[in-house]
């Protein structure tokens, strides 16, 4: 029996070497944006910022982003090094430490703040984080806000070889289910390898897939992608096979696209311009609550 390989193809790959500040705490590479050409290949994901490893000196002041609103989507924060503290107007919040993930559903609207955790700031150190925005389908955009604090120890781990491990954050991998509750079908994994490995993933047809190389190198069909590279794959096909270098770390995002119009402006992600204007007015009149 011939095993026909049905590959997902790399349709875009790039890196964004320049960084910009989000508040005074997050120095990020803006890796995914809801631009028209790109969006259909990254949906249900909207935006991804990567705060690649950076040393922060000790301080007693709060570093980060003060009070601001969101509506119509979810913000997912992955703390890799350092610690992040959140607080929102629905009563959600907490501190996420290295390895933890915080999944905040803004839904109909929250006001929140995002800072380096006090304990981390007092000592200083290396900070590394990813923030991902996940879109909500039209029918769920005005859902009640929700906060999921997902601890490192809650993620199933699947061995992909010696010193190589996959964590299931959302969705499923080889029958292991991740703890995150999602509104549309999503798989999120991260993979670490100390010694390097050959990795094969099988994903569904007609889903979008994105890989962020966080450290080391990814080799796929004689092409090498260094750290801070993003690979975006075709909806068609199922299989993705690559070679991970030593000291490798990558984040894998996969999901069923939400094929609806999207209007993303500032902190709001809606279906129409009219809904963006309503969001602005609801925020100004205090309907998204306060801290
Ligand atoms: Mn925010």
Notes on the protein architecture:
With 291 residues, the chain is mainly β. Helices cover 9% and strands 51% of the residues. It contains 3 helices and 26 strands. The strands form 6 sheets. Strands 1-22-19-24-17-14-13 form a 7-stranded antiparallel beta sheet. A 7-stranded antiparallel beta sheet has the order 2-3-4-11-6-9-12. A 4-stranded antiparallel beta sheet has the order 5-10-7-8. A hairpin with a 2-residue loop joins strand 20 (218-220) and strand 21 (223-225). The model has no long low-confidence stretch (mean pLDDT 96). The structure holds manganese (II) ion (MN). The site of manganese (II) ion has 5 residues, from strand 5 and strand 10.
Could you name the key traits of this structure?
seven-stranded antiparallel β-sheet; 9% helix; mainly beta; single chain; 291 residues; binds manganese (II) ion
């Amino acid at each position: 029996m011939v095993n026909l390989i049905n590959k997902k193809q790399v349709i875009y790959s790039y890196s964004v070497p320049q960084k910009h500040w989000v508040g005074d705490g997050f120095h990020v590479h803006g890796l995914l944006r809801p631009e028209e050409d790109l969006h259909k290949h990254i949906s249900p994901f909207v935006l991804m910022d990567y705060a690649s490893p950076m040393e922060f000196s000790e301080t007693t002041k709060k570093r980060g982003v003060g009070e601001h609103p969101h509506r119509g989507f979810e913000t997912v924060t992955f703390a890799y090094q350092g610690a992040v503290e959140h607080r929102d107007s629905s009563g959600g919040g907490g501190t996420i430490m290295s390895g933890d993930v915080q999944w905040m559903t803004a839904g109909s609207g929250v006001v929140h703040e995002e800072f380096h955790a006090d304990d981390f700031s007092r000592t200083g150190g290396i900070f590394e984080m990813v923030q991902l925005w996940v879109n909500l389908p039209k029918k769920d955009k005005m859902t009640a806000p929700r906060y999921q604090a997902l601890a490192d120890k809650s993620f199933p781990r699947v061995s992909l070889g010696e010193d190589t491990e996959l964590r299931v954050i959302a969705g499923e991998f080889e029958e292991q289910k991740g703890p995150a509750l999602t509104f549309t079908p999503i798989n999120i994994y991260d993979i670490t390898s100390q010694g390097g490995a050959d990795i094969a993933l099988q994903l569904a047809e007609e889903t979008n897939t994105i890989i962020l190389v966080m450290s080391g190198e990814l080799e796929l069909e004689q092409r090498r992608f260094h750290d801070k590279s993003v690979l975006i794959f075709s909806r068609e096909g199922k299989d993705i096979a690559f070679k991970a270098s030593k000291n490798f770390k990558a984040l894998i995002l996969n999901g069923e696209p939400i094929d609806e119009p999207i209007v993303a402006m500032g902190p709001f992600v809606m279906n129409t311009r009219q809904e963006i204007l309503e969001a602005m007015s609801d925020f100004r009149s205090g309907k998204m609550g306060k801290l």
